Amino acid sequence: MGSAISFIVRVHTTFSPAKVALNPDPLQIGILSTGKLSAHALIAPVKSHPDIEVYAVASRDEEKVKKFAKKHDIPKTYHGKNAYQDLLDDPRLDAVYIPLPNSMHYEWTIKALNAGKHVLVEKPIASTPEEAREMYELADSLNLVLLEGIHTRSLFPYSLSMKASLRNNRFHPALQRVKAIIDSGELGKLKHMSAKALIPIQRSDQLYVPSDFDLAKGSVMDIGCYDVDILRYLAGSEPIGVGSVTYTPSPKAQNMDKIVEGVLEFPGDVTGTFSTDSALPNLLGVIPQFDFSLTVECEEGSIKLSNYMVPQIHHSITVTKTTAGKKRVEKLYKPAPGSGAPGEEWWSTFRYQLEAFVQKVRGGNPPQWVTKEDSVSILVWLQKVYEKMGLDPRPASKYYLETRAD
């Protein structure tokens, strides 16, 4: 009964957290777009943070932006053809969240940085590695914070005492625990990893169409970035090659990948399989299915983590010691006692991400971060995956090309 009650509390508090009292001078953040992602990626997490509030939102559609602002209690709105730039020019804003289509990330991140705003931009950070490099270089030159929203990694560590032994200290306690078991040598040498990111179809227009190519979309771009990043993290190194890759195109566009399965090769004969599906059919036609799971195979056993995307709702870490014939199941919903890291059982990956972003903007040094090297590397390998599939990598954005025209 106790675990059932805890589950209900976690679910409710994750999506409907109580609004906390604000500090005297909290950061002010604006949102470019009224897309649905903002509600759980930023607005809900902000409610439980005392040092930031959503002050403004922009959309070209006046009716839509006013309705969105009223629903989420956002005091300032901008609309019309110059809505995004008008929001960026607002002197009250300290930061901006950019959940726009992939091909628009470069343009509006550059414009936001030039307007003096810190930026939290959705993944993938850009359409190409070259765009990502420029974005970080500009942020560094202006002494502004730029964070790519790979929220599955932007979390506080399982135990700060492990900091010296881990390459990246920025995952949910559950995923951090998987990494710690690998690094401990308990199961012997790492041999193989498998990461899945399969999401349910919600509507027919979720299927990719030909024009989505220029928007830098695709199963690999939209959700494969999670798989590639996690495999890099667990391996503790960069890939050295792409093995076999197969894909199933969208029914509406042969140049757009809907399902992708492939292999990344790492040093030491370690391999990592990744699987993506951007529109998994509903069970019996009505029940949404999803699979965000990891499997790690070592010389002496294996680890399986279920539900790495929303681990605060429910997850399990199954550790099998094959040579000893033993199996155990672990669950970790918050940082280890005594670690000093903030976190509650109901904190989502987005809430941990916000914690790190605010801390960085305030001049702190969060124990986890998505670096320039991380963002660029992910895009490099996503491009290599497309090349292995025989598909063209996503093109540079129109704005990137226009700013280079003579």
From TrEMBL:
InterPro entries: Gfo/Idh/MocA-like_OxRdtase_N, Gfo/Idh/MocA_domain, GFO_IDH_MocA-like_dom, NAD(P)-bd_dom_sf
Entry's EC annotation: 1.1.1.179
SUPFAM superfamilies: Glyceraldehyde-3-phosphate dehydrogenase-like, C-terminal domain, NAD(P)-binding Rossmann-fold domains
This protein's record includes keyword Membrane: no
Segments forming domain GFO/IDH/MocA-like oxidoreductase: 176-303
Catalyses which reaction(s): D-xylose + NADP(+) = D-xylono-1,5-lactone + NADPH + H(+)
Taxonomic source organism: Agrocybe pediades
Keyword Oxidoreductase tagged: yes
Superkingdom to which the source organism belongs: Eukaryota
Keyword terms: Oxidoreductase
Domain Gfo/Idh/MocA-like oxidoreductase N-terminal: from-to ranges: 28-147
Protein name (database record): D-xylose 1-dehydrogenase (NADP(+), D-xylono-1,5-lactone-forming)
Molecular function in Gene Ontology: D-xylose 1-dehydrogenase (NADP+) activity; nucleotide binding
Protein family: Belongs to the Gfo/Idh/MocA family.
